[in-house]
Amino acid sequence: MAGITLYDYQKDALERMKIGCILCGGVGSGKSRTSLAFYYTLYGGTVNTKNYVKMHDPPDLCIITTARKRDTGEWEEELAHFYMSTDSDLDIYNHKVVVDSWNNIGKYVGVKNAFFIFDEQRVVGSGQWVKSFLKITKENDWILLSATPGDCWTDYIPVFIANGFYKNRTQFNNEHVIYSRFSKFPKIDRYLNIQRLVRLRERVLVDMDFERPTVSHHENIFVEYDKPKYLEICKTRWNLWENKPIETASEFCYLLRKLVNTDLTRSQKVLDICMTRPRVIIFYNFDYELDILMNLPYGDDAEVAQWNGHKHQPIPDGKKWVYLVQYNAGAEGWNCIKTDTVIFYSQNYSYKIMEQAAGRIDRLNTPYKNLFYYHLKSRAGIDLAIGRALMEKKKFNERKFYGI
Q1: Given this chain, do its domains 8-207 and 215-402 carry the same CATH topology?
Q2: Domain ranges in the chain?
């Protein structure tokens, strides 16, 4: 049996990993294989050897990941390199391997003496997933995987508690958080003793020193929009489609985006790009965008497929194709090395989702050196505001924009 081979930067990260750490690497850096290598070496395995070295009595392995990664079998492919599988007939060890989604994490509360890999970090806040995570980590060994581990100090609270740095969220807040006195709801004004927080973060974060072999080319493609109608909506706060007042910030932003995103010049730019790029992935947000994209004349020889909440079609296999992917359904958990081109038909509110979407083609085994990303956007206020939030690696705030 062939041995397990890691890249130098993966082996370097492996040597710095420990129970309770967050393995932090960009999309496509090989976090899955490195995390399995940690489990493998923890119980007697050896990497970068000619022949496979078996583990000694490894415990049960539970991998909590996204529903998409579970369903597409991405983890099964990585497990196979280590001669492990969720199918006991294909596993050379006498242990149980489970791959399940974060939605089912509650099922594993009560499991003891197993090893958990928590993929695509979801332990932020204080909801049910976090409560289940904290119960599981008390009884089992574990590590976390994340491309973007935390935007603020409070994102680290569950991991800090699980590592025993704090007893609970209250202790963390008492020691580090000062709330604003002038806010109607709890709003953090500043943090105290940041030096300790930095030290604790350095103890749990293991960064993968990953230099991509690819070169990403991002191009903003500006399109037109109906300025008079846009200004009318902003001024009157009136829903032009249903002939009624706009009632919420969410509705206001949705209607502005609908007006901007349905402009014919945006569709034309898609066709212009597809004329020179034969295989293209297009990310979009809304169903009305899908209707537009499905009805564009890409050519009789172009195959069109989609992945969203309605259909889960595979990536086409021909010489010319268009793959339409809805951000929330398909920004993570699958890879494509058949193309070098992604079109962002519209911007997503979340920087993390945009990064994950871009990473679908930026893989270690891609045959392409240069990758091309086309960002379609207008110079309308809503598009510019979303763009600014993404540049600052923040999530776009609809309520703030509604108040302008």
Answers
A1: yes
A2: 8-207, 215-402
* The one-letter amino acid at 8: D
Name the nearest CA neighbour of 145 among 183, 107, 102, 82: 102
**Over the chain, what is the mean pLDDT?**
92
Which fold, 215-402?
Rossmann fold (3.40.50)
Could you tell me if 343 and 371 are in contact, meaning their C-beta atoms sit under 8 angstroms apart? no
Q: d(Cα 270, Cα 285) in Å, to the nearest integer?
A: 15
β-strand partners of 307: 312, 325
8-207: CATH number: 3.40.50.10810
The residue to which tokens 């569950």 are assigned: 158
pLDDT in tens, 318-357: 999 999 999 998 888 788 999 999 999 999 999 989 998 9
Type of residue numbered 379: R
Q: Tell me the pLDDT tens digit for each residue of 139-187.
A: 999 999 987 777 688 888 999 999 999 999 999 999 998 887 776 667 7
Which of 402, 351, 399, 354 shows the shortest CA–CA distance to 381?
Answer: 402
Give the range with max mean pLDDT: 182-196, 222-236, 323-337.
222-236
Residue type, 296: L
